[in-house]
Specification:
279 residues; nine-stranded mixed beta sheet; metal-binding; nucleotide-binding; thiamine biosynthesis
Amino acid sequence: MDDAAKEERDPAWWGRRAWSLLSAVRARAPLVQCITNLVSMDVAANALLAAGASPAMVHSLREVPDFTPRCDAVYVNVGTLSEDWLPSMRAAALAGRPWVLDPVAAAASGFRMEACLELLALRPAVVRGNASEILALANRSVAASSNFKGADSSHESVDALEAAKALALSTGSVVAVSGAVDFITNGEQVVGASNGVPMMQKITATGCAVTALIAAFVAIEPSDALVAAACALAIFGLAGEIGMESSKGPASLRMHLIDALYCLDKETVTSRVKLSLRP
């Protein structure tokens, strides 16, 4: 085992790496273009600002040629998908900047699945979804069962781990599966992120917000999207844990989570981030 591999198996290394990336986001304020859904714009923008990044909710196709090449990363989210926005998503993905895809409710319809698969072919650096979304993409299948839950997952993250690895290998993207434990894989390595609280699932668009944060981290570390995505997921989950300490329910957690993300310090991140390289 080489020195780099040994380091990645050390939990303390992950804490230091997470703090290093968050510090770099705060210092450099990467500009992240967000072509995201109407439900998530507010929380995604505020999460990016709290972390130190600069969000730009720019989705007009006419602005992409001028604006997108000047961005540090692009975030594409298909939550409130419409045919009018698809050309902008495609153009932004092709603009030469590192970009991240959130395939919200990919299995909801044939139109949505077709759009997600078309975007996947444009090689996002990271794909972040819940277990049901990743399983649907890997199987290229539209939901037909009565258990379909829209944007919510009807599977645990571990259920989609093998599908995530296969999807990563077939697309060349890092694939992140959110759940009680988040799994992040490039098809060969798998990182587990265990930060977070169940109440975060009761807040609309927390998944969308963490994907936006992944884009900011990828902007800082485009050559290692696996580490960038894992650290972003752990940082966001840690902010949720800290926010929960002062919260009474989902509404107050949303506020306290954003505050916690803004206030994170080196000691807290390095001691409380829960990341590990899985066998």
